[in-house]
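User: Reviewer 2 asked us to show a designed sequence for the structure in our supplementary figure. I'm pasting the structure tokens here. Could you produce the per-position amino acids so we can include them in the response letter?
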């Protein structure tokens, strides 16, 4: 049995190559052999180190107005825990921790908490104020760990970056498709842009209420795109024969595609609940990226149109309230204006358009024709890789043929 970082055999990729391929596509749940480098908090080690130093600097600065004491507290609470952890781990004293274990994470929370506990900050004069601040600091550090674990563990950052790269690679085709799609969408929503009702309602809504309105459309679009009818992960994980496996890999130019014939004649990729959720998240975000591009384009069009066609008098007449100006510019006899009311209405219509596109494009291919949609391809490729490397061989497959050197991912 091989270790987590070793190569299985001559006919398959190493665990390190698989780990790197899955993680870059936001699929940490599909990494079978969890080495320390695959743990979310380890992959975010650099960011956590920077956050730790930033918190220590901020607390040391608030501690006193004396620069010498600031530096003293900074070095005490930064260097002492660092050296203590290295001695406990039997590392060199000045070594930078590369793998964050329980000791490092405990120190991440305890060191800032001890600073707050050891002094009265911001003029606090009572024990209650000091204890309250200590609790806030401890909760903040725990919250940082939780948020980082959630974001990195879900693979959202790496997945978003990968989707943006895929989108940029098809930029020419996407721009041509948008040139055909935008007139259709603008014809639907332009009418609403020039109605007083939407300016009176959305234009004067702000804060949490406005945010909640936008999140309603985002949530409904997410639920629709994530429904089983739109993303059937179990069906996408099935491969009738070798050709379907190879086709799924060649669709994304996968470096392991030439190895498919050595390991499988097809089958069903084994997936647990977390892996199904991870794959569905990839599919949803892949399609949402396209909707976001469409919404952004619509938002730009309506922002420019609003500046040119809707001045302060019109906004005042529609909303029955003077506009909150952001920018004004004299152009001939006209006074151009950009207000918060403009942006609220534009943001609402752009979000609605993205929602409308994500729903209608599934059934009306004329809206999405030519726009990159890698949702099914990404899920199929990931399932094909997992099927190949799961060690499942059909009885009809003969002994492996000689292999060529494994390509670099």
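Assistant: Here is a per-position design you can include in the supplement:
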């Amino acid at each position: 049995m091989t270790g987590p970082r070793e190569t299985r055999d001559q006919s398959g990729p190493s665990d390190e190559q698989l780990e790197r391929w899955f993680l870059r596509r936001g699929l940490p749940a599909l990494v079978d052999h969890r080495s320390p480098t695959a743990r979310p908090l380890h992959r975010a080690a650099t960011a956590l180190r920077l956050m730790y130093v930033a918190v220590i600097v901020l607390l040391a600065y608030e501690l006193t107005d004396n620069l010498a004491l600031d530096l003293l507290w900074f070095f005490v609470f930064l260097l002492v825990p660092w050296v203590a952890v290295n001695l406990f781990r039997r590392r060199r004293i000045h070594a930078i921790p590369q793998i964050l274990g329980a000791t490092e994470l405990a120190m991440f929370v305890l060191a800032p908490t001890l600073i707050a506990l050891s002094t009265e900050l911001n003029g606090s004069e009572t024990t209650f104020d000091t204890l309250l601040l200590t609790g806030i600091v401890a909760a903040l550090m725990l919250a940082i760990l939780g948020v980082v674990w959630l974001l990195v563990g879900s693979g959202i950052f790496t997945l978003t970056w990968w989707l943006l790269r895929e989108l940029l690679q098809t930029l020419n085709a996407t721009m041509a498709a948008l040139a055909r799609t935008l007139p259709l969408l603008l014809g639907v929503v332009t009418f609403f842009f020039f109605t007083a009702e939407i300016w009176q309602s959305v234009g004067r809504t702000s804060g949490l209420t406005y945010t909640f309105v936008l999140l309603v459309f985002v949530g409904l679009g997410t639920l629709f795109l994530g429904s089983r009818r739109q993303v059937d992960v179990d069906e996408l994980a099935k491969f009738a024969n070798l050709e379907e496996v190879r086709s799924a890999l060649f669709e994304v130019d996968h470096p392991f595609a030439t190895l498919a014939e050595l390991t499988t004649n097809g089958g069903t990729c084994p997936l647990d609940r977390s892996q199904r959720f991870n794959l569905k998240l990839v599919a949803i975000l892949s399609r949402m990226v396209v909707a976001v591009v469409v919404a952004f384009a619509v938002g730009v069009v309506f922002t420019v149109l609003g500046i040119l066609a809707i001045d302060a008098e019109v906004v005042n007449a529609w909303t029955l309230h003077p506009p909150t100006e952001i920018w004004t510019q004299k152009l001939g006899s006209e006074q151009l204006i950009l207000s918060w009311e403009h942006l609220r209405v534009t943001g609402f219509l752009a979000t609605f358009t993205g929602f409308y596109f994500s729903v209608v494009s599934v059934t009306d291919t004329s809206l999405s024709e030519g726009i990159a949609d890698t949702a099914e391809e990404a899920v199929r490729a990931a399932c094909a890789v997992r099927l190949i490397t799961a060690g499942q061989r059909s009885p009809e497959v003969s002994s492996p043929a000689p292999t060529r050197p494994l390509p670099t991912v």
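For the response letter, you might also mention the following. The two ends are 24 Å apart (CA to CA). Residues 157-389 form one domain.
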